[in-house]
Amino acid sequence: MARNDRLPMKRAAIVEKLVDSIELPIGRWDRDARLTFCNRPYVAWAGRSELELLGRTLEQLFGDEAWAAARDAFEAGYAGQRASYQRLLSHQPGERRWFRVQVFPEFDWQGEVVAVYTVGFDVHDFVTAGQALEAARARMSQFAENIPYPITYVDRNCRLIFVNRAYVEAAGKPASQLLGRHLGDARGKDLWARHRPYYERALAGEAAEFTRMVELPGRGSRWVRTSYVPDFDADGKVIGVYSILVDVHDLKLRQQQLESSIERDPVTEVLSRRAIIGRIEQALADRCAGTVALFFVDLDGFKMVNDMLGHRDGDAVLMRVAQALQAAVRAEDSVGRFGGDEFLVLAKVPDRHGAEAISQQLIAAIRASSAGQPALAQVTASVGYALAPEDADTPLKLVQRADDAMYFAKRAGKNRAAHCSVLPM
Fold it and tell me: Judging by DSSP bridges, how do beta strands 208-216 and 160-163 pair with one another?
């Protein structure tokens, strides 16, 4: 054989070795879809010998289901086009795995398709991961659609991209009239004006909340909270905002009850120590409040009442005193229990003479609260008072000045009032 005649044979042997070295199953199929060539990885992949494979059609080798999956791609290949298909292999032992098969034509020197080649790729992990992701997305979509709380998603231009069933019901409009529209256009300018600051915070990357009272269909007035959560892309840029509205009515009422229990003294139901101090701080911080007077009230002889009657009746006395103090001042004035048998009264006054008049009202009111109670006839009060900003310009100093004046009144004979001016500076 001439040397030039051996070149094509040598070239074919090189190509065959090259194809065998590719770790992918490769096959060549003639116009009748019969396998005419396969590399070694294909033999291993098929799980049969080369003798069992060559000369047989894909349908004969792997069954009707395999050919049904491959037919369209093979027809495209015979028509001179590249194509691919995907199927779950069942011919291999063990776990069934997903493969993607690429099909491309082989042309002769006249440009006619004489065969097609197939190359198989194991895409099992990719496909199963995609299936799991799609399943998770479907579950999340169903959850979002059926959760009884209104949920929305808007893009950076605040156009509604997603609304769930609860939101559609709350809006009273079909989804077709909401999706793709700006919130202000879809829900009205007034509603948008209330929500806009919170969306702007979320679009700036900060989660926000808005709690308010609204009318819910069939449920009346309810406290609700809307949460606004920014949606970030892979680069950390905000691309949209999720919002969810939750009915927090019962929680809000419980919170209000808790705040009320903290603000009110449990025995006397007047302001607690913490609350009355807060009122004093607020009054001194308000430059438009004018002159205010703080009265420090201490009961005279209360320990004897507790010793004689016990703590239950002692608490009843404190309650009556608190009610008497509350009745002796205006509704806008504040009465609080400082501790034990000590009370604080904060009142707006025109001047020191007005404060003196209130101090006498307080003493008289406490005395009157014991009327008709023989065992309580000895309960009176010593009252000290100070004015702000005249006598003190801080809450602590104001309380101290009134407290010192109260002790002066007690030392001077009890059942009387004293202004802090009687004390040395």
Answer: unpaired
